[in-house]
Write the structure tokens for this entry.
Amino acid sequence: MKIRPIIHSRAQIIRNGGTDSNQSARRFALDALEGALRAVDPYGCLLAKVSIRNGQIRCGECSVPLANASRILILAVGKAAVPMMAAMTLLLRNYTVNGILVAPKNQYVPPFDDSILLFQSGHPVPDLTGLAASREAKRAVGMLGDNDLLICLISGGASAMLPAPANDITLQDKKRVTDELVKSRVTIHEINTVRRHLSSLKGGQLVRLSRARRILSLIVSDVPGNILPDIASGLTVEDPTTFRDAAEILQKHGLWSRVPKSVINHLTIGARGAIPETPKPGDPMFKRVSNIIIADNRVACLAAKRVLATKHVPTTILTSSAETEAKSMGRLLAAIATSSKLHNHPIRKEGAIIVGGETTVEVHGNGIGGRNQEVVLSAVEDIAGLDGAVIAALGTDGIDGNSKAAGALADGRTAQRAKRKRIDPKYFLTRNDSFRFFGRLDDNLITGRTGTNVGDVYLILRNP
């Protein structure tokens, strides 16, 4: 169940680099990103953090008895659902379990036995399979009694893959809202605030449905800062936001008039108190719930730093919780690279800076691309001529936007190479067509679906 490393022609990357300085910088950047991916393999992370000892599931200071559980139900949902389910069923191989596995559409799923019910749902736009998975999850969780154990294996993407629209909202309505949110400059916190209040499962409502004695949630976080209510829209977490908050977000971003009337009515009625709110902090039902993060963006950033340390590259992790617009991130990274070349600060003659988090893109064009490729494309012209400087960005799930790439890489010669091919970075940026730009230069980073998701890793590397 190991994730795949980055698939890319190293020979092409090195050949594109030109000088020895560019060649080594590109090679080091690629190695660092591969190291980051390997470190957040959900299968390995779960087995490293969780064990079965003396009839108990143990994870850090948390212990959950197995002996007294009449039934054990595993609900795995998200981009990392498959390897997490594989790891958990391995740990519980001596116990009788049933499971619901909600994995991304088109992802390879190895054979599980008949006790695991499989759904492969759409992402980022929810589909009918996700709706069926939601109904089955609600049915199965609702049947658990007070001697039963519910284990939730949660990762990024679960919000779309387990849509569970509220009773007065259709799947088509929810798809339209999701599409509007994804295309707008809306933060992940704002997106999930809206999702929680259009759902019958999210924002802790899964806990409300279940009478299970204990609920253990093992989480792979794709949210900057590991804000639990925002990871998969907080299936097993108290919700600090309200219907009114959700309505104000749509109004703030000019989406109120563009979403279906059923959504407007639902949020308006909810804000008046006519629909029960999501469970709030302090609710005693959460005393039986343990939410534990087993992998996150910082794990990936630290792994990239360790790889660079083996190559004697001084490296600083600036943050693993960045949230900003993709073009702004690209220009910031380029500014750091330029300042380092001119003033030996913040990077001296050689070194690297790593940033983790997740950016947003406001889509204006009809091109192919994603936030990571847009970050790098935004930096191309600003680092033109900076020999030995490399900027790279990678989405750890392997899928960047609507493209088949995970990210991209550029150096000080990228602008010159683009000019020779008569491709203008500004033109492709305007059209949100970063995938085609880097495809012409063979500088996309391709992984396929990785089976994990902890957000994005951005890297600036400078060789003398």
The two ends are 39 Å apart (CA to CA). The CA atoms of residues 225 and 315 lie 21 Å apart.
